[in-house]
């Protein structure tokens, strides 16, 4: 079988239903203009207003009030046998309220669902249902949107089009279909009026956010108005599928240039991509959470994780681009062990300054250079430009011996977290969009290791990744950062400190790490409850 010509520049399947020519793709150039326009719109959407859209604000308040009031009453009356039962109850009610409010809030739930370890397990598990189990829009609506954007009858393009959606999420749903020319495809169809709804919701969120400063513990560091801005920057680019198709091509090029053969991207159709519909080739594989199915098929799930850990780091540091919304519904594993990436509505893009800052952060972590790491975070926008780096290191105690959190009781753990948050707030710390997306992806991969490779040696694997990265890109790092790599020594002290273990620790499986985390979280919960 002859390989497809577009494999010379992109990571796609060996013999796709069509061949992409980058010079003739109808939607390619307009996507650049659309992306710039979307980001230019963000300040307008989130600017301070005397009044929000009152009708929408009322509906949001009523829905969340209805979800929380019964839980609050039962909690006060001590109706729940355990804290876990209480969290499970309120998580279900919140999920139902979010689904009724539509795309914007469902997208927020999806982001939370990727935060395993950051948010309560019950909330994460319930919000995972918002990834692809959202009630779909009716077939008549789907047909109308497809025909409006194509400018012709559905039968003029498709030989068949399944009425039941394959999956439905916040912004869109997907359907299996077959083109008149015989190719099996997947069609992504945007929800009706979602573009207007998202913009109204962003105005509501921007109006509410200032009142939430200091009132929500989980948002204390991020700053609610800044969170709304980040969310707006992210979601506005999802409202035109021509940008998403362009992202698919750009990520595929990046994977090819980095020789990341373990990952591929489905081909978007060269002409059947419009504002609200995206036709792409149909690929089949295992759900990313189907560990038993993959292992029964002879797939090395540990290798799947290892490939992902270095792939996403290389994309950000070397090309300044990476998939920005990893979760179990956005990837699946083919029978040959390769992973297909899906849903490119959110893609992280780093300008040269921030890409080099990411590279400096990685190098500093690899060499245990605290000053370089904090300076890199400043250059990424996480700290103000005039931040005193040495003062940050001193105030956070980064230059002090590592404290093993498992040696602390609940009160001490809570106090330590509060101390760090207070110090960061004093310096004006925030979470830039690109860093937020990258951290969110790392949180997802962390959770994926628990399922696919629980016995992976975390310290050993990250050490191996550091060596591999230096071997592949040492010359480029040396040139761009002005570093003499001959004098660089790998020192995983920063990593070990981040894990809460001393430098004498040589290895730690993910299973052992999770046991430590569970112990820490239990002590903190017990202290807060008491």
From TrEMBL:
Domain ABC1 atypical kinase-like per the UniProt entry, residue ranges: 130-371
Short name of any one Pfam family annotated for the protein: ABC1
Entry's family note: Belongs to the protein kinase superfamily. ADCK protein kinase family.
Name of this chain's protein: Unannotated protein
Organism: freshwater metagenome
């Amino acid at each position: 079988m002859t390989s497809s010509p577009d494999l010379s520049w992109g990571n796609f399947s060996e013999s796709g239903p069509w061949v992409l020519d980058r010079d003739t793709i109808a939607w390619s150039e307009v996507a650049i203009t659309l992306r710039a326009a979307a980001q230019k719109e963000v300040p307008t959407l989130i600017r301070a207003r005397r009044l929000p859209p009152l009708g929408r604000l009322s509906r949001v308040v009523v829905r969340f009030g209805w979800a929380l009031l019964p839980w609050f009453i039962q909690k006060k009356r001590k109706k729940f046998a355990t804290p876990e039962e209480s969290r499970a109850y309120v998580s279900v009610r919140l999920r139902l309220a979010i689904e009724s409010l539509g795309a914007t809030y469902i997208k927020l739930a999806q982001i939370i669902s990727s935060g395993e370890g950051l948010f309560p397990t019950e909330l994460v598990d319930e919000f995972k249902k918002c990834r692809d189990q959202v009630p779909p829009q009716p077939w008549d609506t789907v047909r109308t949107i497809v025909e409006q954007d194509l400018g012709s009858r559905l039968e003029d393009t498709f030989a068949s089009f399944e009425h039941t959606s394959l999956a439905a999420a916040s912004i869109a749903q997907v359907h299996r279909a077959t083109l008149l020319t015989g190719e099996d495809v997947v069609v992504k169809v945007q929800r009706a009026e979602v573009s207007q709804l998202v913009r109204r919701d962003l105005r509501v969120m921007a109006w509410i956010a200032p009142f939430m400063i200091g009132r929500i513990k989980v948002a204390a560091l991020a700053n609610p108005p800044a969170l709304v801005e980040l969310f707006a920057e992210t979601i506005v680019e999802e409202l035109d599928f021509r940008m998403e198709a362009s992202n698919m091509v750009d990520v595929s090029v990046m994977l090819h240039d980095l020789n990341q053969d373990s990952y591929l991207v489905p081909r978007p159709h060269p002409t059947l991509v419009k504002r609200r519909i995206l036709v792409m080739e149909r690929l089949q594989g295992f759900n990313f959470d189907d560990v038993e199915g993959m292992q029964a098929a002879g797939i090395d799930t540990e290798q799947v994780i290892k490939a992902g850990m270095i792939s996403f780091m290389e994309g950000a540091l070397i090309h300044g681009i990476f998939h920005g919304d990893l979760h179990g519904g956005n990837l699946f594993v083919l029978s040959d062990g390769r992973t297909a990436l899906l849903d490119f509505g959110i893609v992280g893009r780093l300008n040269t300054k921030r890409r080099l800052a990411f590279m400096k952060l990685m190098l500093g972590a690899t060499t245990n250079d605290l000053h370089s790491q904090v300076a890199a975070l400043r250059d990424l926008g996480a700290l103000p430009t005039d931040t005193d780096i040495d003062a940050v290191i001193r105030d956070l105690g980064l230059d002090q011996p590592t404290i093993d959190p498992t040696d602390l009781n609940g009160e001490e753990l809570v106090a330590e977290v509060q101390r760090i948050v207070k110090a960061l707030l004093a310096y004006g710390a925030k979470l830039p969009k690109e860093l937020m997306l990258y951290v969110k992806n790392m949180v997802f991969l962390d959770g994926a290791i628990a399922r696919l490779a629980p016995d992976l040696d975390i310290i050993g694997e990250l050490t191996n990744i550091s060596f591999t990265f230096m071997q592949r890109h040492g010359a480029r790092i040396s040139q761009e950062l002005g570093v003499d790599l001959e004098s660089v020594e790998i020192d995983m002290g920063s990593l070990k400190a981040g894990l809460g273990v001393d430098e004498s620790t040589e290895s730690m499986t993910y299973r052992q790490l999770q046991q430590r985390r569970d112990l820490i979280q239990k002590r903190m919960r017990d202290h807060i409850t008491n």
